[in-house]
From TrEMBL:
Residues annotated as domain NAD-dependent epimerase/dehydratase: 122-203
Organism (species): Cephalotrichum gorgonifer
Protein name per the record: NAD-dependent epimerase/dehydratase domain-containing protein
Family matches, as InterPro entries: Epimerase_deHydtase (IPR001509), NAD(P)-bd_dom_sf (IPR036291), NAD(P)-dependent_oxidoreduct (IPR051783)
SUPFAM superfamilies, per database record: NAD(P)-binding Rossmann-fold domains
Gene Ontology CC: one annotated term: cytoplasm
GO MF entry, a single one: aldehyde dehydrogenase (NAD+) activity
């Protein structure tokens, strides 16, 4: 808990230490009696349904106290773009991006509870306004789940062994720098017309990359040219495990035109493959420091590794 508070303080944010339960709500009074915006960006997999109930109870309690003091909060609730499932690959004739109008049909069963529970945030109109945000994967800093790209490349460099992938090299890899993602949240929080912010918003980079282009950047960066091979499933000795395919072969193009048109927000940082050296250095520095975000990602790994085809 103390380490988390230090990390927040480094970013010039005042940490308030509490817990997910309701016991710490009253202690907030000495800091503030009103809240303008509440951001929900936590996740537990598996077990999201139960986690949602605990968090929304806390959010409602905070919103109730704020309302009693004259301020109705805005809640920005985080789900994820995988709520929509997958799109076709780059170059496919019928390729279209997922938009906020796309049906919520997760292609991964374990994500269904998150997709469904997140929409329930709109059931709390008595206490707050809400928006459900669906960002893509993020990179920069710890690179979150995309740290796996660096781990795989480093292992190839160390072992000298080739990696065969049974994923389509044209799979769309659509990510976003974590700082750009944070600025998108701020853009919605600061928008003067609350009525237009209520709803659903995708957050994504201005364009996508492909599995092949990302690996080409990694091969150049790590000096492992020719070590990553894309093979047809029927020709492979082993299939790429779902835990890897979920990162390096999950094809999805996500439109973020809605938030751009409403707020003027845009992503500014370079794409993952365009600035791979800088993102690698950042990842390695954060990984060496063993921050809580690295621990969070590592804690999910065993669950993902047990996923079935």
């Amino acid at each position: 808990m103390y380490k988390a508070a230090v990390e927040v303080s480094i970013n010039e944010v005042t940490p308030i230490i509490g817990n997910i339960g309701l016991s710490s709500v009253d202690s907030l009074d000495k800091y503030t009696k009103t809240i303008d915006v509440i951001v929900g960006a936590t996740e537990v997999l598996p077990g999201y349904d139960e986690h949602y109930e605990k968090v929304i109870a806390k959010v409602r309690a905070l919103a109730k106290k704020s309302n009693e003091n004259g301020v109705r909060p805005l809640v920005l609730w985080t789900s994820g773009c995988k709520d929509y499932g997958v799109t076709d690959v780059d170059g496919a004739p019928n390729l279209k991006p997922h938009t906020e109008e796309s049906p919520i049909i997760p292609s991964l069963d374990f994500l269904a509870p998150r997709a469904n529970s997140s929409m329930r945030v709109f059931e709390n109109k008595d206490l707050f306004d809400a928006a459900v945000l669906r960002p893509t994967n993020v990179y920069g800093g710890s690179s979150s789940h995309w740290g796996l790209w660096f781990e795989l490349a480093a292992e190839i460099q160390k072992s000298g062994k080739a990696l065969e992938l049974t994923v389509d090299p044209k799979s769309i890899i659509h990510g976003l720098h974590v700082d750009d993602c944070g600025e998108a949240y701020v853009a919605l929080a600061e928008h003067p017309d609350r009525g237009k912010v209520v709803g659903e918003f995708n957050i994504s980079g201005h364009t996508y990359e492909t599995a092949r282009s990302v690996w080409e950047a990694l091969e150049h960066e790590y000096g492992i040219g020719g070590k990553v091979k894309f093979v047809r499933p029927e020709d492979a000795k082993e299939q790429t495990p779902p835990s890897l395919a979920l990162i390096v072969g999950y094809s999805q193009w996500v439109s973020s035109d809605k938030i751009r048109d409403l707020t003027g927000w845009t992503d500014k940082r370079m794409l993952f493959g365009e600035n791979i050296s800088a993102y690698r250095r950042a990842y390695e520095a954060v990984a060496a420091s063993k921050t809580r975000d690295i621990g969070r990602v590592d804690s999910v790994r065993p669950f993902l590794e047990n996923l079935k085809e």
